[in-house]
Amino acid sequence: MRASRYILFMYAAMILTPAALFGYALTGMLGYTGMQLVFQVLLVPFFLAFGILSYIEVYAHRGASVPRSFYKITTTGRRKEQTSRVGNEVMLNIKRFNHDAKHFEESSHSVKVSRFTTVLDALLDIKERQDGTLAMRYSCRMGICGSCAMVVNGKPVLACETSAAKSAVDNRIEVGPMQAHPMLRDLVTDFDDFFGKHSSLDPHLYRKDEKEQWRAKELYKQTHEEVNRFLPYSYCIMCGLCMDACPVVNSNPEFVGPQALSQAYRYHKDSRDQMKGRLTAIDKITGAWGCEFAGACSEVCPKGVDPASAIQLLKAEVFEDSIKTVGKNDA
Amino acid sequence: MESLSYDIVILGSGIAGFTAALHAARSKAKPRIAVISKMHAMRSHSVSAEGGISGVLYPKIKKDTEDLHAYDTIKGSDYLADQDAVEILVKNAPSEIKFFEHIGVPWNRDEKGTVQQRPFGGMSIPRTAFAADKTGFFMMRALYDQALAVENIEIFHEHLATAIVLDKGRFAALPTIDIATGEQRIFRSRACIIATGGFSRVFGFTTTAYSSTGDGTALAYRAGIPLKDMEFVQFHPTALIPSGILITEAARGEGGYLFNAKGERFMERYAKNKMELAPRDIISKAIISEIEKGRGFPDKEYGYSYVHLDLRHLDRRVIDEKLPMIKEITIKMLGIDPGDEPIPVRPAAHFTMGGIHTDIKGRILSQEGRPFGGLWAAGECGCVSVHGANRLGSNSLSQCSVWGRITGEAAADYASKEGRPAESEEIVRKIDEEERRISGILESDGSNNPYEIKKMLNKTMDSRMYVYRRVPEMRKAIAEISRLKKEFNDIYLEDRGRRFNTNLRDVLEIGNLLELAAAVAESAVRRKESRGAHSMVEYPKRDDKHWLKHTLISANEGKIRISYLPVTLGGWKPEERKY
User: Fold this and answer.
1) ipTM rounded to 2 decimals
2) pTM recorded for the entire structure
3) Has domain A191-324 been given CATH number 1.10.1060.10?
4) What is the rounded distance in angstroms from the CA atom of residue B262 to the CA atom of residue B283?
5) Among this protein's residues, is B109 annotated catalytic?
6) Between chains, do A143 and B242 touch, taking CB under 8 Å as contact?
7) Which B-chain residues 557-576 have CB contacts (< 8 A) with chain A?
8) Distance from CA of B205 to the nearest CA of A (A)
9) B453-479: per-residue pLDDT in tens?
């Protein structure tokens, strides 16, 4: 059964239970005992349905609203920005995962930074001159490959886009790995699960006529309006920061999360796409309905994708599709 | 050591690699394909391509022809391009743009909904299709997402190839390291396509990603495969200082100007007609000439002297819709909004025209011209010789997709007909040797810091092999590189673990860079003329009588062998190059 139907029933039961209760009370006051019996009989399944369904809903979101202190953004950082000067020595405190001992360790390194030095530059400087064992991912150093996602001063960011001088608070920068992904080593996290979630929601443009798609002869047309429906969601660089910030992902690893959902929405809204059934895969408690609209994903996205809005729009699409297809084969 | 068997192995996951994988996967025999990337596959350097992809889309409306595209490309190449290869490029590029449209790339469109094309350097008509200034990124995402839906493609993230094993002139095996675990893993297959991109990281000041270390090219070179035209390294005129991040040519395509410190639009002196839209070699030389004549901005703040790329006269909407990444980058890196302030730029190593010697079908050839069995190269790592001495902007994405498809289909065809390479003692010996070599590196306990060696290499290349080259400087470069190679034999490795050992990865990459830098310098010092990106101070003129030929370099047990190959000419005769 599609999750949207559960939710639909839950809301229906939520409305019908008090209605039945009201009917029961009213008929009782007016003395229509026959009618009252009908309401009494109705009240039991309504109430039970509401109880069970809302339990499922709550269970799916278990622990979701517990805020994680790890992501409390330090507000003092901004005020100190101006005080860091060119050629400053700053201290990088790196929280590193030791895989053999399965715990975090910290190492501190002093690095010279100029106003152009990024946190990635500083980390590479440490790796090349102080500690060759430091492990991290990086590549393009221009914010487009999505490799260097990490947590700097409590905030999930791309290291290559983050100024070291501006990040320094009292000449110190705290650097750590993302926390919602399994750890590999030092600042490196495991992306297998993340990539699996991404590909589970059919994130690709599907055409019925595959031959025509692969031996393209003509260009399709798309109006600006059609392009703008999906373009804002197509900038995702798969860095993993939104997943790291999402409170639901952090508490329930089953939730597919903002990255996969926003990308499913991106392809779904592309007027060139002809896929059917993508919405069915999303219509699960661990799919679009897992989102609690905390908005953290959109706040940390370094490319301005706004997955949170994509998911809410997706919920509406899923509902519409779900109602339209009642009675048809859901498999 | 684990050994995995596939029909086709594709080394590299950029636009060329994934295009090859997709087209090979769809062939009739449905071959099993492994795509191997040393990073997460979707993070290949192709994502950094900005400006667009060239191709004749509207011959009637724009009065554009494939012949004109070919002429522009050949003239841009300073007549070193093989003209039969160029014909393949221009003929196939339009359908590749359409293919990418059909798998989801959001091309910029006009009011009517048709795909727009923008002007680019050296192109006589606007014929560069683009998706804002993130064209490569969008193409990569579309390819990666499409590959996920194909059952017979398996993606191996973070596997670094350490050797190419050949046996009796045929591809046999590809030993790799699984970076996450540190285990060595051998890929065996009927066919292999190398698509590992360029090696601009031999330079320190470069637009390319840290990963652009030309691994596949270096592995091929070490396996005895010749490299072609290695002296031709393109310097992109407008790289942001001090990082070297690319500011796309599209910034000039959309109308940007270049100014020197005197406030002159100096391109007037070098390319009167095309001005800022002359080919890259000409503009890079112009910028360096201006700086050398004291008309650049001094290097007080950034550590580099530079000129200004000015976009202030452009409509802000043009910047927002067509150059959003440039704006994002300059604001994030320098705090400069290109709508308010000019951007400080100077030329940086950007693209390597040279690479693995292939024929026009992408088959890898020996120095004598015999093809190796089951071995192809596609994209920047291969030198199919379509760019000659200087690539035109936006021809690289067309090259990657055109030869991605050609090599993918050819490899699939080969794999369906040929059996598996026969087992031999030679193969076993080479694989064992590779295993021992890696274990040996892990135990390195010498006295040199490998990162210092890399820095010195970068410094040598930046100072002695830059836009203008002088013979004595190049000789010094060769001597320095060979000294660095010796020092590299005595390095220390700090990280001795297996799990996610980036120290080991870096050392292997630095070894590759040293090989390639030597090949660049050795090829360059011998070419006694100025052609395209190779500008000799002592020989300032192009010399078609003696040098209308490709350089081939190969190495055998430390000894290099250089020979030359004539350029394939066609309908376009070499003429003076004026813009």
Assistant:
1) 0.96
2) 0.93
3) yes
4) 17
5) no
6) no
7) none
8) 13
9) 999 999 999 999 999 999 999 999 999
